[in-house]
């Protein structure tokens, strides 16, 4: 695998699917933008509150996906991302993802060490009760169709990630 060398700085598009996240979305968008991503795309899945308004005010490009569902929101976000995007970052709009790790999570892709990086919610620290038992159990392994093994990547600061190369 070769390092990403399409340009000096890779184009990183952050995609945030949302549904009724008006309380947190403005701060999330601002925090993501502070990580030097190229764009923030918020996909509103039919919120009944001011999620879209607050996301736009914070600097995001807002896409409305009228069909409900997380998968549909993800697909709409991918379709809306910049055509020249080198890396897509997906995170939740409720503030549960520590955005300060975005540079460390994309660095294996930029270095050519991975084509996909998956952040883990079960490794490292988390608030008590933040995940149901089934979420913890379903997040303990990761295998891609092209790579039957999982390489562990542990950035500094306590958040761990699974890197598939």
SSE order and pairing:
Elements: E1 12-18, H1 25-33, E2 39-44, H2 51-57, E3 61-64, H3 70-80, E4 87-90, H4 102-110, E5 116-119, H5 133-138, E6 151-153, E7 161-164
Parallel strand pairs: 1-2, 1-4, 2-3
Antiparallel strand pairs: 5-7, 6-7
Describe the fold and architecture.
With 165 residues, this protein is α/β, with parallel strands linked by helices. It has two domains: 8-97, Spore Coat Polysaccharide Biosynthesis Protein SpsA, Chain A; 103-165, no CATH class. The protein has helices spanning 25-33, 51-57, 70-80, 102-110, 133-138; strands spanning 12-18, 39-44, 61-64, 87-90, 116-119, 151-153, 161-164. Strands 3-2-1-4 form a four-stranded parallel sheet, sandwiched between helices. A hairpin with a 7-residue loop joins strand 6 (151-153) and strand 7 (161-164). The model is unreliable at 138-165 (pLDDT under 50).
Query: Mean pLDDT, as a whole number?
Result: 80
Share of β-strand residues = 15-25%
Distance between the termini: 8 Å
Helical content (DSSP H or I, runs of 4+): 25-40%
Unreliable spans: 138-165
List keywords for this structure.
Spore Coat Polysaccharide Biosynthesis Protein SpsA, Chain A; disordered C terminus; 25% helix; 2 domains; 4-stranded parallel β-sheet; 3-stranded antiparallel β-sheet; 7 strands; alpha/beta; globular; 165 residues
